[in-house]
Design a protein that fits this description.
This protein has 236 residues and is α/β, with parallel strands linked by helices. The protein contains six helices and seven strands; from the N terminus they run ββαβαβαβααββα. It starts with 6 loop residues before the first strand and ends in a 19-residue tail after the last helix.
């Protein structure tokens, strides 16, 4: 098994931002999903860099296959977040996370004081109410993601789970990895849904990537309006 220590790595953008373009923008930490690594977040990271975000980092979760509990992986996110704040001198950061990484990041916010250091949290197709696919593996991380798990019940019981953090959820009702797909919802979050047919394609769909950028740059969270869902021909 690989070391469980976090590795926050700088993202190489295809287009460098001019120094003045990112003025006032908050550093961004990206967190990948199960069985993924930094490469899965490259389209998102590069898009943010082109949009003028100068400080975008990816934390690689070790192990990435659910062999560690969500709480252990959340500790890695906490380390990476602290490192990013120290490197940039920023009191707060934004967190954008996909799939299992969204639940890991939520645990960081709710249990490891992340809500004191995060401005905005964007969850992309996270299993916040659990997923039936968690029963396909017998390891600790998968058990944490099963509907009704002790971890999920505890997180859901918090009366003010995110403090002052502004929360956004982006998900697809066609998801076959997060089952049921509505498990990606979070109470109180600003929400958009997209007719994306495969779970991994959420990280490559232009509408999703543009919505992440909008969520991080909109002046007020309430200005992030729901997008009208248009299903493909023959869809449900």
């Amino acid at each position: 098994m690989t070391s469980a220590s976090a590795r926050a790595s700088a993202t190489v953008a295809s287009t460098a931002a001019a120094p003045g373009e990112a003025s006032g923008r908050v550093p961004v930490l990206l967190v990948h999903g199960i069985d993924d690594d930094a490469r899965s977040l490259a389209p998102l990271a590069e898009g943010l860099a082109r949009a003028g975000f100068q400080d975008v980092r990816i934390v690689e979760l070790k192990p990435n296959n659910g062999a560690a509990p969500i709480s252990v992986l959340a500790g890695q996110v906490a380390e990476a977040a602290a490192s990013l704040r120290a490197q940039t001198g920023s009191a707060r950061i934004d967190v954008v996370a996909f799939s299992m990484g969204a639940l890991v990041s939520r645990y960081y916010l709710q249990r490891l004081e992340g809500r004191n250091h995060v401005r905005r949290f964007v969850s992309i197709s996270g299993p916040h109410a659990g997923t039936l696919t968690g029963w396909l593996r017998a390891n600790p991380g998968a058990r944490d993601m099963r509907p009704g798990s002790e971890l999920l019940r505890g997180l859901a019981a918090d009366e003010a789970p995110f403090g002052g953090v502004q929360v956004f959820t982006l998900w697809t009702p066609l998801d076959l990895m997060i089952v049921p797909a509505r498990s990606s919802k979070l109470a109180g979050a600003r929400e958009r849904t997209f007719p994306v047919i495969l779970h991994p394609l959420m990280l490559r769909d232009g509408r999703v990537l543009r919505s992440v950028e909008e969520a991080l740059t909109v002046e007020r969270a309430e200005d992030f309006l729901p997008a009208q869902l248009t299903l493909p021909p023959g869809g449900p």
